[in-house]
From TrEMBL:
Family statement drawn from the similarity comment of this UniProt entry: Belongs to the binding-protein-dependent transport system permease family.
Pfam families: BPD_transp_1
CDD domains in UniProt: TM_PBP2 (cd06261)
Classification via InterPro entries: MetI-like (IPR000515), MetI-like_sf (IPR035906)
GO biological process: transmembrane transport
Keywords: Membrane, Transmembrane, Transmembrane helix, Transport
Protein's name according to its UniProt entry: Carbohydrate ABC transporter permease
Membrane topology: Multi-pass membrane protein
Cellular component per GO, a single term: plasma membrane
Source organism of the structure: Rhizobium tropici
Domain ABC transmembrane type-1 stretches: 87-279
Transmembrane segments: 21-40, 93-115, 122-143, 155-174, 195-218, 260-278
SUPFAM superfamilies reported for this sequence: MetI-like
Length: 294
C-alpha cells in the first residue's frame, strides 16, 4: 500500500487559541509542580538554611540526612522509627485489596454485561447507589461488624473494608468496558461449549488488560492515599504510611524538623506517582477504551 503524505502547508505561526492553550497548560503545570519543588528543595536543606526563610532557593549544600531520618528515624511521640514500618504496612494493605477488588469487579462487570442474571439491573443500581453514599456513614456499623468477626484492628479487616468500598467503581469500569465488546463473541464461545469461567479466563481477561491497569491505578491510588479507613480499622500495629506521616508531622516533642517532614511526605507520595508514570500509556489506553463510556 502506498504511503500517504500530507500535502498542505505546515502552520507557520501560532494562533491565538494555541497561545492561550499553551499558556493555560504551563500555568497549570506550575501550579501543581511548585509545591513539589518547594518540598523537594526544603527536604535537601539543613535546618539552619531553612531558618533563613529562602523557601524557593536551591540548597547551598545538598543534605540527604533528612531523607534517612524520615525513612528510619523520624519520631512519633516517644518512638523514632520513621515511615519505614508504615510503608510496609501500606504494601500489606494495598496489594491484596487492589488484587481482590479488581478481580471481583471484573467478574461482576463480565456477568452484568454478558450473562445478565435475573435482577442484575436492580443489583447494579443498588451497588451504584451504595457507592454514592459517603462512606463515613458506614464506619460505625462496619466497626461493630468487624469486631464481631474478630477482624477489627487487623490487616484482613482493613483490606475487607477497602474491597467493599472499591467495588462500585471497579464494577462500573469493567461493566462499561465489557459492554463495548460484541456480544456475539461470548455467544460463539458458548456454542463451542465454553462456560462462564472459561470464557472469562481465556477470552475476557486477556482482552481487558487496559481496563485492569486503569482499575488497578484507581484502586491503588485511593487505598495508598487513604487516611481515615486505615486510622479506624488497621489497629496500632498496622497503621498505613499516611497515618504515620500525620503522626510525624504533628508530633509536638522537640524541634519541628521541616526538612524531615517534607522528605517523609515525598516518600509517602512517591509510590503512586511512580506507578502512574510507568503505566501512563496503559492508563490512557484503558480510559479511551471504555472507562468514560456510559
Amino acid at each position: 500500500m502506498a504511503t500517504l503524505h500530507p500535502r498542505g502547508p505546515k502552520p507557520s505561526r501560532l494562533t491565538a487559541g494555541q497561545i492561550g492553550l499553551y499558556t493555560f497548560l504551563i500555568l497549570s503545570a506550575l501550579f501543581f509542580l511548585l509545591p513539589l519543588y518547594t518540598m523537594l528543595v526544603t527536604s535537601l536543606k539543613s535546618m539552619e538554611e531553612i531558618r533563613q526563610g529562602r523557601i524557593f532557593a536551591l540548597p547551598d549544600i545538598v543534605d540527604f540526612n533528612a531523607w534517612k531520618t524520615a525513612w528510619s528515624g523520624a519520631c512519633m511521640g516517644t518512638q523514632c522509627l520513621g515511615v519505614r514500618i508504615g510503608f510496609w504496612n501500606s504494601v500489606k494493605i494495598t496489594v491484596p485489596a487492589v488484587a481482590i477488588s479488581v478481580l471481583i469487579g471484573a467478574i461482576n462487570g463480565y456477568a452484568l454485561s454478558f450473562w445478565r442474571p435475573r435482577g442484575s439491573n436492580l443489583l447494579f443500581g443498588l451497588l451504584m447507589a451504595g457507592g454514592l453514599i459517603p462512606y463515613q456513614i458506614f464506619l460505625y456499623p462496619l466497626v461493630r461488624l468487624l469486631a464481631n468477626l474478630s477482624l477489627y484492628n487487623s490487616v484482613a479487616g482493613v483490606v475487607l473494608v477497602h474491597v467493599i468500598f472499591g467495588l462500585p467503581l471497579v464494577t462500573l469500569l469493567f461493566r462499561n468496558y465489557f459492554v463495548a465488546i460484541p456480544e456475539e463473541l461470548c455467544k460463539a464461545a458458548r456454542v463451542d461449549g465454553a462456560g462462564f469461567w472459561r470464557i472469562f479466563i481465556e477470552i475476557m481477561l486477556p482482552m481487558s488488560v487496559p481496563m485492569i491497569v486503569v482499575a488497578s491505578i484507581f484502586q491503588f491510588t485511593g487505598i495508598w492515599n487513604d487516611f481515615l479507613i486505615g486510622l479506624v480499622f488497621a489497629g496500632r500495629d498496622n497503621l498505613p504510611m499516611t497515618v504515620q506521616l500525620n503522626n510525624i508531622v504533628n508530633t509536638t516533642m522537640g524541634e519541628r524538623a521541616y526538612n524531615v517532614n517534607m522528605a517523609a511526605t515525598i516518600l509517602t507520595a512517591v509510590v503512586p506517582l511512580a506507578i502512574y508514570f510507568f503505566s501512563g500509556r496503559w492508563f490512557l489506553r484503558g480510559v479511551a477504551a471504555g472507562a468514560v463510556k456510559g
